[in-house]
Every structure is written in structure tokens, then in C-alpha cells.
Specification:
With 87 residues, this protein is an alpha+beta fold. It is built from two helices and five strands. Strands 1, 2, 3, 4 and 5 form a five-stranded antiparallel β-sheet that branches. The N terminus is likely disordered.
Length: 87
Amino acid sequence: MPAQAVADRRKLHIDTTISLGRYLVSPLTRRLDDGRFSAGVSIRSGQGHGTHDRVLRFVPDFDTPQAALLYARREAVAWLRGTTAVA
């Protein structure tokens, strides 16, 4: 496999960052070896030295990057609702 193809496969695609209250949510996708897509999300809070970034990776694989991004967004919102409801 050409080196560029390997490098392209390893790249994460970061979709548009969404601001949800004090959190910045960045859905992520990565193309897998089999042509499907994995999903993840970065959830960032704070500023400067107090910045905290939590990255979640999800188990299901998806046929399209759009499906992976939609899943990542939904899971991030659900995670934030569960986290902020307790705090």
C-alpha cells in the first residue's frame, strides 16, 4: 500500500465544532482499513491551564462518515446531559 494511502487512513476528520454551554464538542471520524468509518468525539471545557479535553471513541463502525458524525454528536449530547445532570 502506498505511504500516502496509509497516512490518509490514519487521519482523523474533525467536523464542525459545536458549542454547548461551557463545552466545545468536536465530532471525529476515521476511515478504517475495510472502508468503513469509526466515530469519536472530543469534549472540551475550561480555558488556558484549566482546559480539560475528554475524547470518547465508539465501538460501532459506520458505512458513511456522515452516519459516524451523527452518532458521535448524539452520544456527546447524551453524555453531557448525564454528566451535567449530576453536577
